Amino acid sequence: MRKVLGINFSHHCSFAYFENGILKEYYEEDRFNKIKYFEPPDPFYEEPYEYQVLKKFKDITFDAVVFVSFDRGNALVDKAYIENIIKQVKGNDVKYYIREHHVFHAVSGFYFSKFEEAIAVISDGGGARVYSHYFKEMESIFLMSKQKQKITKVYQKASCNQIYFFGEDKHSYIKKMEEFNYDLELINQPIAGRKYMNYTIEAGFDSGEEGQLMGIAAYKDKKTDLDKNVLEIANKAQEETLQEKIELIEKALTYSNCKNIVLSGGYHLNCANNFKLVKHFPKLNFFVDPIAHDGGTAVGAAYYYAKNFKN
Asked: Mean pLDDT, to the nearest integer, of 144-151?
């Protein structure tokens, strides 16, 4: 019996236990330590963290322990995280994936969908670094086949938050990189929702939680004590994000005539916009990853390894 444990050690720290390619158990550490959106403490600056979930697996020796995270851009820090975790779990093989963050969002959604083939559309706040240290993947499109056990990346958009990187060319720099075997766009500003991160503090949310900001857009035309200017910003972010997702799905359909669409990545926690996408594309079969946030990458990584997917 082949046993694989997938571990996501970024925010929404999570653990996915597969036996023979079937998900048996899934846990998120914050359900045990009661720290919402928990991300393990940096092992270079704090005491090694003892993972409560791993106590559930103390009697199991895994054939493989598969690690995944967003790309911090610091291999030494990631190594320290993994060394701390591997002391707390038994495994015969250890695998760490660093460039496949969006791949694992796609594989997670594909696993739960039960589609035999699909187009996976991923929209995320930022996963792996691509092209150079400055750019992080924001949107990706994959063609998925269960029969071939293959996932093929056909498109990716990467964003650089450091605007000065482009010098004077701040507004028009979009380049298709021919050395990649998929379509890559590089842009010098974040995709829609990320543009509004700074307003989350004004709205009373944690910095960086643009999803929370967009979540209050529904109150724009309702009686509420919320600041009307903040509600206008939230509504604008919501509408711009929806339009970007419509355009991304339209682009996805240029790569395949498949009607099965898997949505994953943090942006697809946006239930209101997901519903509008279904209404906008009535002829498509949508499936939204039930663990669309980073926790789902543990599922994707373990299933990818267990089924020996080709990428």
From this structure: 94
Checking if the pLDDT of 203 tops 60, the result is no
Q: How far apart are CA 299 and CA 258, in angstroms?
A: 24
3-class secondary structure, 217: helix
Which strands make up the sheet holding 22-28, listed edge to edge? Answer: 22-28, 14-19, 3-8, 64-68, 94-97
- pLDDT of residue 7 exceeding 70, the answer is yes
Query: Per residue in 237-279, pLDDT tens?
Result: 888 889 999 999 999 999 999 999 999 998 898 899 999 999 9
pLDDT, tens digit (0-9, with 9 covering 90-100), for 70-83:
888 888 899 999 99
Cβ proximity of 187 and 173 under 8 Å: yes
**Token pair in block for residue 205:** 């949310």
- 153, β-bridge pairs: 142
pTM: 0.90
Cross-strand pairs, 160 = 135
CATH number of 115-288: 3.30.420.40
pLDDT of 195? 65
The CATH architecture that domain 3-99+296-306 belongs to is 2-Layer Sandwich (3.30)
229's CB contacts (< 8 A; 6+ apart) are: none
Parallel, antiparallel or unpaired: strands 14-19 and 260-264: unpaired
Q: Give CA separation, 195 vs 157, 190, 198, 236, 240, in Å.
A: 15, 6, 8, 11, 10
Lookup result for tokens 């036996």: 19
Determine the distance from the C-alpha atom of residue 22 to the mean position of all C-alpha atoms in its chain, rounded to a whole number.
21
Two structure tokens written together for 168: 């004077």
Per-domain boundaries in the chain = 3-99+296-306, 115-288
Fold match flag (3-99+296-306 vs 115-288): yes
